[in-house]
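Handout, section B. The chain below has 236 residues.
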Amino acid sequence: MKTTLHQSNSRGHANHGWLDTNHTFSFANYHNPERMHFGALRVLNDDFVEGGMGFGKHPHDNMEIISIPLSGDLEHKDSMGNTTVIKQNDVQIMSAGTGVQHSEYNKNKGEKVNFLQLWIYPKLKDIEPRYDQKTLDPSERINRLQQIVSPVETDLGVTINQDAWLHLGSLEEGFSTNYTIKQKGNGVYVFVIEGDVTINDQKLNKRDGFGIWEVDKFSILANTKAEVLLIEVPMI
């Protein structure tokens, strides 16, 4: 078993006025050669965007881009013709493939929007760009790990062009469970959205990240009421 710990206060941070952001891995002006990626997980940004502000149209290619709103409403527009709003309990994915442009704005002027944005390296390159979003039932993750992303098209979340699985859990204090690796050789990056948890023997607090690999399964214990995101990816 191998592990890596990224405490919340060790993340890269930038405040641009309209955007207050924390970077788990190297991104933009934050560069840490020891934090370039975790396997196929390249970016995990924790973004707070002021009301009415956002990211203007910009390009991506050959990347799987996942947005998970934690609060507020985020408006998305892209060159595929999609204009949508995503909010808490939604998950969005954009397979950039051969190339796509998109913008993201806080839909509301009176409140911030907080969302997690993940970039995952694709399994197949230069595919036709694709967009999807789903609204999740939050009751399905109370003391359970709710699948929100997987490589196979199902009713459980959205589909990704990678051998990757994402799960959300809303765990009550004292709840414990095990997570079993879906594909041999994959690792899991655990991100604590709220609360305190223990992964095997490692205690984690709010916004801490913990990577674990070369293991078949691991234990999860909620030390307080907690929200967790599990990101299983190939260890490329």
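Note. The longest strand covers residues 41-49. Compare this with the example in section A.
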